[in-house]
Every structure is written in structure tokens, then in C-alpha cells.
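User: Sequence for S-layer protein below. C-alpha cells please.
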Amino acid sequence: MRWQHVTILVLLLALLAVPGTAGDKYLYGNPELSATIAGTNEFAPGADTSLTVIISNSGLNTHKIVGSTIVNRDDLPNTAKLATVALKSEATPFTVKTDPQFVSDIAGGAATTATFNVKVADSAEPGIYTLPLEVTYTYLREAEEYGPDTLRYNYQKKTETLPLTVRVTPDLRVEVLDVRSESLNVGTEGYVYMTLKNIGHDTANKAIVKVVRNGASPLIPTDGSAYIGTFEPGETVDVKFKVSVSDNAEPQSYPLDVVVTYEDYEERAATSKIVTIGLPVGGKIDFDVVSSPATLYPGGKSILEVVYKNTGAAKVYNAQARISAVDPFTSNDDTAYLGDLAPGETATARFEVSIDADGTLKEYGIDSEIRYRDDLDNSKISDTMKVRVALEKKPGALFTNPIFLTIVAVIIIGAGYYIFVHRKKS
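Assistant: C-alpha cells for S-layer protein:
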């Protein structure tokens, strides 16, 4: 035998003596799932929030077999495969807005998360509630071997319900039982009266009621807070606020927000949910000159009479009319008292004006305005009005003209002299 053949034979015997690669399998094990809420589990009535759930798998594989003839498994029996989670809310004041979610596989010792949009009812009673989390998954129940290289997997589908504990906290909820306004007109300031009720379940301590401007609403609070102290569930309170209305508003209803800041049952600063009310606004306070154009004459002083009418929607008090005299007019008496004027009422003002003798004969417009006080004793000034004045030539002015009188005198003297001479000759 050749030595090279001996070497080959030894190598073949060595290969035959090496054992095959060992495989393993697990005899027992299954998923063990639990669920918890990430973050707080306390929610106030009316809350619209995202609830994140952590699903954990603590399942173990307790028995393992290793052997050279065992074929390795692709899946482990403690893996929750193809898992889907669904949050339920039956018989609770919660509404789940999110559909069931697919979260894929959850291996033993691992966890995954799912987030659900949840709405708490405004009328939710304080207390503890349970939200069922349904988890549906498939796991490897067993794997059968057929020969040295074949496996058949037997999977089992399972649905588990995992409880999630949530708590609804007490809260203050405000209902506006009655609202009325006083002297609320365009461009003025008025009062707003409200009756509020605590329809929640929390006692509000150190409570302050506030009215707040709603967006670009023309209603602007000028005295917008009222301290009411302790506000018990079921209790009602009456409050009063001062609100102004911008000049560019129209006579219609506008929104105003109502909110209460307070200390809650845990002595923490809290704010109630905003309640929006509508307030009617009356028309603007306005005036018109209703008298006909006055006729005045150049030279000397004249009395200018002007009739004003309250064409607005509210009564005014201590009204005073004023004119702004311009050339050819001057006045040392440019203010006249009108008194109180209800809507539709008129009053006459008299002004003494001087007129230049060389004033152009035409119609003029003299600026005029009225200063008054509203129902809340605020001083206001009306829009500017035009008082129409026509300058005309004074009747009979020819007979008082010095030149005309001189000419007449000369004619009379000449006529008399002519008559005297004619008679003398006769």
C-alpha cells in the first residue's frame, strides 16, 4: 500500500468520527401578556386625549431539549405573533376613537406600545373605571418532526382581555342660567349680568369668574373679573361685569367667553372649560342736524339757530352742542346746552356769530359736534355734523348804502335848486 493512500483513509475516518451539529427545541412555554398605561391614568370630564398603552410579554420557555437529531424551530412558543390590540369602553363614560391596531410580534421578555384617542364625556361622574384591552394573537403550540429534516407547526389563535384602570377626577363645570345686558350699544360701555351654576362635582375654592374677549369680537371687557370665593357643586351665583363695544360693530349679537379660575380638590390651580355666550348689542348713539339751512347776512352779528335730533338707539345726558366757526364766521359763543335727549327727541341750540362784511355770498358748512354722557356717565363726543348756512345780500341794503344816499341827496338838492330858480324867474 502506498503511503498517500493511508493518509487519505485516516482523513475519512476522522470526518466520520465528528458528530453532527446539535439542534434544540422547547417543550413548554406560552405568551404571558399584561398591559399598563404610559403616563397618567387620571382624566377630567370633557378631556380629549391620547392614551398610550404598553403591552408586555413575560412568557418563559421552561424546558429545552438539545440533540443532534433535532431540527431547530423558527418560532418560540412564548412569542405572541401577529398581535392586534383593541381598546373597549362599554359601560364607561369613555369613547374610543381609534380602531384596533396591528402591533406585530411580541417576543418573550419584550414589549410594544399602542396609542388610542379617547374622549371623556362632559357629564362623567368622578370615580374609577376599567377599560378592557383585547389582545388577539397567534402562538406556536407545538412543532412535530417528520424524519430528520421535516417540521410541521401547529399554531393556536388566542384572544385575551387585559384590564386598564382609569380614573375620572372631579371638576368644576359652569352653566350660564341667565344673562342680560344694560346700556350695551355700539361705541359705548355697558353692564353684563349673569347667573352661573356649578354643575360639576368639585368644590372650587378661591374662585374668580372672568369674561374674556372671544377672538376678534367687538365686545371687550373693561371690568372683566368677579371674585366669588367658594363655589360648591349645585350652587348658583350672580355676577356683574363691565364691557365696551367697539365703534365698528353693528347692532346684532356677539360672542363673549366665560371662564372660572380656582383651586381644585388637590389645592392646585385649575381653570374651568370655557363657556361662550351671545350678547345683543344695540345701535350706535348718533345725532343729525334736522333744521333747514340758516340764512345770514354779511356784516354785524346774527343768531344762528340749529335743531339737533337724537337718531341713535339710546338716551344721552347733559348734551352740549358746539360749532367750529371758520372764515367768514367768528364766534365767542360757540357752545349751547341741549340737556337730556331720548332717541327721537330734538333740541334747539342758539349761537351768536359775527360775519365779515366782505364774506362771499354762498352756502357754507360749519362743523358741529355734540358732547354727552351715556348711561354709565362716560363722556362721549359724537361724529362731526355739518350745519348749513347761506350768506345772502340783506334786503333793503341799497337804501342804507352811503353812496346811494349821497347820490339821492345830490338829486334832491339839484331838483330843489331847479324849482327855486324856475319860480324866481316867473
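The mean pLDDT is 87.
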